[in-house]
Design goal:
547 residues, alpha/beta, seven-stranded parallel β-sheet, seven-stranded mixed β-sheet, 18 strands
Length: 547
């Protein structure tokens, strides 16, 4: 096959070496390209081991590589001479291939954004990208995005020998698993001194590993995705610039949202999923705290969806709304702006999304409890009966705060989702079944685009009395090759891993992308991928008139 330009031979030799086998090159015929037509090469290897299982593994792994690396157009024949084992191993067992140092990346999880990580890191033929998932077909689909990708099946819900082996073999791990699993992965990385990158918020459980990660000399770079991730980088670029000129941040507001493009927002919820439906539902019920004009505002998770406000600072034609996002006040410390009178972080949706979902929450559709029935009709009927209602429309109207227009929208949405006759997918959980239903109906169709929007408003005061308001916006649309969400989350995490692999990040312990040595090269690399932040600065008019 095309063994060399596809990188196949490098991967085969890696497999042999990692399995502690030895080999000799019996024959090698490299045929040059003639008149622009490439010709296939032929390589004959003799592989030695005292362990039959290792030899079987070599055969199986090489066969998998042949399936994954389509560009090689390669085939394999193997001749089993184990019945006449050599008396000793060959004296020379390794062949060194000159070029870029070999790098090994392990991606844990093969979800909606994993292909972005694999594609970016897998562009280099000197980098092996292993994709681990519980489902082989998903792992293979992601691995094909890398020039030297390979799929691995593994139970990632708990620690085990397979996971340990994968972590041990990697130079860096990119975990795209649910955030509660990151501490387990981090502990394995610390044990094997393997660096780790995640796109998730840094939890208290992860923070508890700060000292052990430093002692092990391991970098654990968290919050390198879209939000969190690119929001930190683009905001800190402005904040550090203001602080460097002696200014003080007096107001900070940052919002972000992953949405369908306007032409694809063609359903009652005005939303489609480019990431986990359960993640969206959970995020819509988090407690939130922020400060506005010096006043601290606290919102219970149960009331979050009712707290949405129109977003008017950018893209007004899109009719967006914003929901407070978690605890904004912690960013006073993270960003070095503790005295700012306003600190707000929010999530963008199209107007009407939050009110509709809030009614579903009031109805009990977002509760994690048994459905008590096999169909959605009977499930909803059970819920309304338990609340003392025998008429569905009356139940919806009360849950909608007696807003007839909103109640009508909710009823029509239920019909559109099939809640009158569809079976429940998970009788043990109403919300799980609802998420399955949303995922079924709120998928992007062929040719439809998603959209990511991020915007900051940052006000700064200076000793000379001048005031600056910085506006920073990023809007990205998906295309036929990749969704905007996959690109913004996946590329950002991949760039974090790339910097660790190439020595751009040398610090150890728990890290965030809020320092200049991380965000400056990251933003530059993102810009090369077409992910660009547009910045504007407005000056206080009264000050300039006085001058």
């Amino acid at each position: 096959g095309h063994l060399f330009d596809s990188g196949l031979i490098n991967q085969i030799l890696d497999v042999i070496e990692r399995l502690d086998c030895h080999f000799e090159i019996e024959d090698c015929a490299v045929r040059p390209t003639v008149n622009g037509v490439p010709h296939k090469s032929v390589l004959m290897l003799k592989v030695f081991s005292e362990d039959d299982n290792k030899l079987d593994s070599v055969i199986a792994k090489v066969d998998m590589l042949l399936q994954l690396i389509d560009s090689a157009e390669a085939s394999m024949q193997h001749f089993d001479n184990r019945s006449a084992k050599p008396k000793g191993l060959p004296s020379q067992g390794k062949v060194s291939v000159l070029g870029e140092p070999e790098k090994r990346v392990l991606i844990l999880g093969a979800g909606k954004v994993a292909s972005g990580v694999a594609e970016y890191l897998g562009r280099s033929t000197s980098t092996t990208v292993a994709v681990a998932s519980m489902f082989e077909d998903e792992a293979m689909a992601v691995a094909k995005n890398a020039a030297r990708g390979k799929a691995v099946t593994c139970d990632l819900s708990r620690s085990g020998d397979k996971l340990r082996q994968l972590v041990q073999e990697a130079d860096v791990v990119v975990s795209l698993l649910p955030a509660p699993l990151h501490p387990m992965v981090a502990e394995e990385c610390i044990s094997w001194k393997t660096d780790l990158v995640t796109a998730s918020y840094e939890s208290k459980e992860m923070q508890a590993l700060r000292l052990s990660s430093i002692e092990a000399g391991v970098a654990i770079l968290n919050e390198v995705g879209l939000d969190p991730g690119m929001d930190h980088m683009s905001a800190m670029k402005i904040i550090d610039d203001v602080h460097g000129r002696g200014g003080e941040i007096t107001s900070f507001s940052s919002v972000c949202g992953g949405l369908p493009a306007p032409e694809a927002a063609n359903n009652p919820l005005l939303y489609k999923f480019s990431w986990s439906p359960m993640g969206v539902i959970r995020a819509s019920q988090n407690d939130a705290t922020y400060r506005r004009d010096g006043k601290v505002v606290q919102i219970n998770g149960s009331d979050l969806l009712a707290s949405s406000e129109p977003f008017l600072h950018a893209w007004q034609s899109l009719n967006l709304e914003v929901l407070p996002n978690r605890d904004s006040l912690v960013y006073g410390q993270k960003y070095g702006i503790p005295s700012a009178k306003t600190i707000f972080r929010g999530t963008l949706r199209y107007q009407g999304f939050s009110s509709l979902l809030h009614v579903f929450k009031n109805m009990g559709i977002l509760d994690n409890k048994e459905t008590g029935a096999a169909t959605w009709h009977d499930t909803v009927e059970n819920i309304q009966t338990q609340r003392g209602f025998h008429d569905l429309r009356s139940f919806i109207l009360v849950c909608a705060g007696n807003d007839k227009d909103l109640a009508s929208r909710v009823y029509n949405c239920m019909l559109w989702l099939g809640l009158k006759n569809a079976p429940v997918s998970d009788p043990s959980s109403v919300v799980n079944s609802f998420c399955d239903l949303l995922e079924q109906h709120l998928q992007f169709e062929d040719g439809e685009r998603d959209m990511v929007c991020m915007h900051h408003d940052i006000k700064a005061h200076f000793d000379d009395g001048s005031i600056e308001t910085h506006s920073c916006s990023m809007q990205l649309f998906g295309d036929d090759s990749m969704t905007a969400m996959c690109k913004t989350v996946g590329y950002t995490a991949a760039i974090g891993a790339k910097q660790i692999l190439e020595g751009g990040i040398t610090k150890k312990g728990l890290l965030l992308p809020t320092s200049k040595d991380v965000y400056t090269p990251s933003l530059e690399l993102l810009a090369k991928e077409g992910i660009i932040f547009e910045e504007q600065v407005h000056f206080d008019e009264e000050y300039h008139h006085a001058v």
